[in-house]
């Protein structure tokens, strides 16, 4: 620490895993300036809102959050308020004009400049807005790949069994509805040796699982002539002590045979893939500029299932894209029925200022979008139930993450004699399980970070419930990404 007075920072993280990762980086950088993290805005000297612009609702949430914070600042003028992430990039100085009291607007490609700006603000400068998109590779020009990122031990943000590692930033795909290429910039991949080094650091700080992050991980390294994504997976899997590898997001158009083959070869790779389909209708997919058709999509899933039986597939769907007819929508429902996704995220199409689809005619009405979303979610709930009920009685390898909400004592269900723990199966299914107080059962605290077998007893809407097998020596039990024990 370089400062004497203890200062506190609260970072509110909205949006996707990219922002979660960036929040970790910012937390580390600020720790070096003497800022400890806090969850309470009342205790904070600095509040950062790390924002998302993907849909209008996400943006509205940001604006109301900033409004509230600026109101607090009227009573506490020393509070510093910063906005980072995709809305910061998108709106830049406009945010300073709109919110009196806002001190810093930090774009998505300059977060490494945060310490300099915070120092300047502490010295009475500001407001500052920087949304530059520097030409250099963001991973090579700064602190982003220096000590904080590559050398153990990681600081304030470290800890946790399952961690994210960004392997690339930006996106070059320009799907017609999407704001990401405009707010995150062009695609840039990070050198494999830095990624492996960071994974090593995370594992030595206690991580057992890493999720590699990018908007389109399958095109990793292509532009820069680095190694392929499957090769990167292999390199990461060589890190001793790492048990599981996941990745998001995979674009269906770039899901190569080499990646399919990686599921055959790399045991640590979990039996789950998130493969956003967006629509089951070829004409909608074409207008979305997704560059694959329904048939291609289904064939790729078939291939994956042939090398990794039992692999769970999840997806994203947009309903009410401009011009989507009832028939198009039914094609999407039909695709759900055929593919049988484990779960999905579904969104009503939302116009984004920079994305070309905002100019597409034949907008679907708000009522129709709502109705389609409801119908799709109901339809999928039935499929998820069917899959989950079929799992009752099976044994799953669960990487224990901690106490479940109930286990931490939330709500009326608190039962201290039966602490409830939570974790995930290789297929990324949430599994909660109770521990009885008995000599045979392990100490709950010691289970965190272990992979243990859990017998599934019940299917809930979004999770599974189970218990430890009575005669299994839990602490000894270990398996990798689910290749052998695919349930
Ligand atoms: N890079 C990832 C997705 C990132 S955004 C991919 O290509 O799959 C996450 C999800 O938000 C998308 O998959 C899409 O389903 C949804 N989304 C993006 N823009 C949207 C918009 N304008 N309206 C509604 N949903 C949108
Ligand atoms: Fe957006 Fe498409 Fe890029 Fe995903 S691949 S971030 S949906 S432009
Ligand atoms: Fe949102 Fe930006 Fe992620 S728009 S989804 S936070 S890349």
Description of the structure:
The chain has helices at 17-31, 56-75, 86-91, 93-98, 114-122, 147-150, 180-184, 192-204, 229-237, 257-265, 282-287, 294-307, 326-339, 366-389, 444-447, and strands spanning 7-13, 35-37, 46-51, 80-85, 104-106, 128-130, 162-166, 168-169, 188-189, 209-213, 244-248, 272-274, 312-319, 344-348, 395-403, 420-424, 430-434, 451-459, 464-467. It is an alpha/beta fold. The protein folds into four domains: 7-133, Methylthiotransferase, N-terminal domain (Rossmann fold, 3-Layer(aba) Sandwich), CATH 3.40.50.12160; 136-270, Transcription Regulator spoIIAA (2-Layer Sandwich); 295-389, Transcription Regulator spoIIAA (2-Layer Sandwich); 395-486, OB fold (Dihydrolipoamide Acetyltransferase, E2P) (Beta Barrel). Strand 16 (420-424) and strand 17 (430-434) form a beta hairpin. Helix 13 packs parallel to helix 14. It is globular. The N and C termini lie far apart (48 Å). FE3-S4 cluster binds next to helix 1 and helix 7.
């Amino acid at each position: 620490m370089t400062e004497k007075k203890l200062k506190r920072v609260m970072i509110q993280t909205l949006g996707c895993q990219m922002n979660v990762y960036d929040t970790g980086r910012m937390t580390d950088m600020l720790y070096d300036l003497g800022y400890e993290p806090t969850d309470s805005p009342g205790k904070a000297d600095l509040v950062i809102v790390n924002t998302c612009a993907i849909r209008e609702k996400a943006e509205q949430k940001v604006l109301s959050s900033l409004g509230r914070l600026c109101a607090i600042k009227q009573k506490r003028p020393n509070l510093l308020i910063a906005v980072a992430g995709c809305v910061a990039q998108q709106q830049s100085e406009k945010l300073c004009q709109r919110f009196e009291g806002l001190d810093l607007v930090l774009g998505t490609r300059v977060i490494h400049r945060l310490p300099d700006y915070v120092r300047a603000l502490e010295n009475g400068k500001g407001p500052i807005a920087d949304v530059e998109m520097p030409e250099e590779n963001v991973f090579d020009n700064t602190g982003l790949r220096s000590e904080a990122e590559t050398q153990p031990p990681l600081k304030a943000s470290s800890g946790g069994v399952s961690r994210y590692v960004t392997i690339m930033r930006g996106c070059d795909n320009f799907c017609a509805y999407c704001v990401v290429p405009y707010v995150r910039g062009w695609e840039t991949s990070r050198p494999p040796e830095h990624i492996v080094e960071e994974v090593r650091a995370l594992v030595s700080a206690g991580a057992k699982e890493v999720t590699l992050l990018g908007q389109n991980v399958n095109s990793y390294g292509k532009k820069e002539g680095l190694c392929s994504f499957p090769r990167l997976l292999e390199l990461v899997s060589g890190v001793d002590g790492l048990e599981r590898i996941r990745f998001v997001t995979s674009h269906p158009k770039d899901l190569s045979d080499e990646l399919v083959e990686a599921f055959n070869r790399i045991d640590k790779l979990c039996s789950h893939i998130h493969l956003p389909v967006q629509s089951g209708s070829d004409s909608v997919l074409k207008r979305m500029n997704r560059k694959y058709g329904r048939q291609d999509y289904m064939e790729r899933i078939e291939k994956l299932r042939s090398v990794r039986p039992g692999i769970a597939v999840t997806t994203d769907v947009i309903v009410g894209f401009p011009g989507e007819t009832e028939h198009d929508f039914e094609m999407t429902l039909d695709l759900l029925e055929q593919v049988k996704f484990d779960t999905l995220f579904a969104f009503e199409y939302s116009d984004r200022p920079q994305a070309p689809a905002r100019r597409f005619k034949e907008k679907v009405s708000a009522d129709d979008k709502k109705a389609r979303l409801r119908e799709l979610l109901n339809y999928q709930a039935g499929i998820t139930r069917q899959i989950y009920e079929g799992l009752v009685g099976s044994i799953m390898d669960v990487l224990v993450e901690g106490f479940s909400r109930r286990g931490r004592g939330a709500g009326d269900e608190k039962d201290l004699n039966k602490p409830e723990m939570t974790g995930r199966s290789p297929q990324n299914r949430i599994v909660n399980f109770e521990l009885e107080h008995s000599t045979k059962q392990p100490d709950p605290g010691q289970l965190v970070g272990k992979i243990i077998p859990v017998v599934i007893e019940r299917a809930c809407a979004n999770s599974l419930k189970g218990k430890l097998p009575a005669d299994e020596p839990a602490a000894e039990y270990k398996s990798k990404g689910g290749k052998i024990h695919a349930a």
